[in-house]
Design a protein that fits this description.
Elements: H1 4-16, E1 19-23, E2 32-40, E3 44-50, E4 56-63, E5 69-72, H2 75-86, H3 105-116, E6 119-123, E7 128-136, E8 140-146, E9 152-159, E10 165-168, H4 171-181, H5 183-186
Antiparallel strand pairs: 1-2, 1-5, 2-3, 3-4, 4-10, 6-7, 6-10, 7-8, 8-9
Length: 187
């Protein structure tokens, strides 16, 4: 994270349930995620993600060190909050019970995906991978990856420290889940 003030803003957004925009690239003003901050630790932030049209689109877990700037209460966030209400979206947390003090947010989200058997996307410096969590330990997660058509592909391990972003329940993961679950019907 670029500074302590940004981390403070994330904590405030979480505590006050404010919609926030999280910017991640200095030279690209379009590289941001918007939504409600569900949980924050020194290392990660979990965002109840909202599309530019005010629709809930799953959760994004990001490294706090990748967040350069946090905006709350600007015109964009106010309009987005209005759109969320107009869409009839209602905030429901991913983590129930909430994150305990000192708990590892990344491991908690990955363990939840393993428990539910849901597709997730994992972004590293190399690429983005989609699949189901096959195993998880203190240092690594293994995913059973799917290909473009939702077909089983391969198993791949990732060091937890290399994961930059996790998508959980977004429209992309839902699409791959649907393709994977309906494979026999489609062939």
């Amino acid at each position: 994270m670029s500074n302590r003030y940004s981390l403070y803003q994330l904590y405030m957004a979480c505590q006050q349930h404010l919609l926030a925009s999280l910017y991640t690239e200095q030279d690209d003003p379009d590289a941001f995620n918007a939504g409600y901050v569900e949980a924050v630790t020194q290392r990660h932030v979990l965002l109840w993600s909202v599309t530019p049209w005010g629709q809930h689109d799953g959760w994004l877990l990001r490294r706090t060190e990748d967040i350069l700037q946090v905006y709350m209460g600007d015109d964009y966030e106010i309009r987005l909050q209005m759109l969320v209400r107009l869409e009839g979206e209602s905030y429901a947390p991913l983590l129930n019970p909430p994150l305990a003090p000192g708990e590892d947010l990344l491991r908690r989200v990955l363990a939840l995906a393993l428990e539910r058997g849901e597709m997730i996307s994992v972004m590293t410096a190399e690429d983005t991978f989609t699949g189901k969590v096959a195993s998880l330990d203190d240092l690594r997660v293994a995913l059973d990856l799917v290909d473009f058509f939702g077909e089983p592909d391969s198993r791949m391990q990732f060091a937890l420290r290399d994961i930059q972003l996790v998508g959980f329940g977004t429209s992309e993961e839902k699409m791959f889940q649907k393709l994977s679950e309906n494979r026999p019907k489609l062939v």
